[in-house]
Structures are given as structure tokens and as C-alpha cells.
Amino acid sequence: MANHRRYGSCATARDFEMYAPNATFEDPLMRAHGVKQIKSAFYTMPKVFGESKIVEYTIKENATGPGKSQILIDNKQHYKVFGKDVDLESLITLDVEDGKVVRHQDW
């Protein structure tokens, strides 16, 4: 799962091919518009967190219209912040149109 690599702070350029050119990413800490800003957001993670990874997840996909779907990833994320372990439960929502992610939210 490419999301797993991005959240594990080891993303590669290929991991971002799933995004439409004008896609958005939003979480409690940031908002990014366009693939360049989304890449920057995920490449910054290792500088902010000593460790970050998704440790458990379930995935559901729902069709929302012709060529459109929403992928819901209910997950548990593990971070190391200032040497302290932090576990968070999160819902990642990916809105997909014609095979590309147009909106990525992590709440």
C-alpha cells in the first residue's frame, strides 16, 4: 500500500503518481494543493517525527458516481515525537476520479 510508505516516512516519487495534478491533501497540521505541495508535506514528515507508520488498517471502497469512488482507510498510526511514543486512530479518506486521487484527507 503506497499510503503505508508515505506515512512510514519513506515515500518515493512513484508513490505520488496516484494523485491528480490539482489534488488536495489535508490533515490537522497542514493543507497542500497540487502534487508538488503534497510531496513536500510527506517528505517533511521525517523531519517532524522521529518515527511514523501505519500499524493497523482496514479499507472500504464505495462508488460515488460514474468514474468516481471514495476509499476509506480506518487506521492506527504510530509516531515517535521527542522520543515519546504516540498512537493515534485516524480515518483517511481518498476521493478518486478516473483512477486518480483528487482529495486526500486524514482526520
Task: Explain this structure.
The radius of gyration is 14 Å and the shape is globular. The longest helix is centred in the middle third of the chain and has 14 residues. The protein has one domain: Nuclear Transport Factor 2, Chain: A (Roll), CATH 3.10.450.50. With 107 residues, it is an alpha+beta fold. The chain is built from 2 helices and 6 strands; from the N terminus they run αββαββββ. Helix content is 19%, strand content 57%. It has a 6-stranded mixed beta sheet with strand order 2-1-6-5-4-3.
Defining key terms:
107 residues; 19% helix; 6 strands; Nuclear Transport Factor 2, Chain: A; alpha+beta; six-stranded mixed sheet; globular
Task: Set out the fold topology.
Blueprint: H1 2-7, E1 19-26, E2 31-33, H2 35-48, E3 51-65, E4 68-81, E5 84-97, E6 100-106
Parallel strand pairs: 1-6
Antiparallel strand pairs: 1-2, 3-4, 4-5, 5-6
Assigned CATH architecture: Roll
Report the radius of gyration as a whole number of Å.
Answer: 14 Å
Low-confidence stretches: none
Overall body shape: globular
Please name the CATH topology. Answer: Nuclear Transport Factor 2, Chain: A
Whole-number tally of structural domains: 1
Largest sheet: 6 strands, mixed
Secondary structure: number of strands: 6
Mean pLDDT: 89
Please summarize what this structure is.
The protein is of the alpha+beta class and 107 residues long. It contains two helices and six strands.
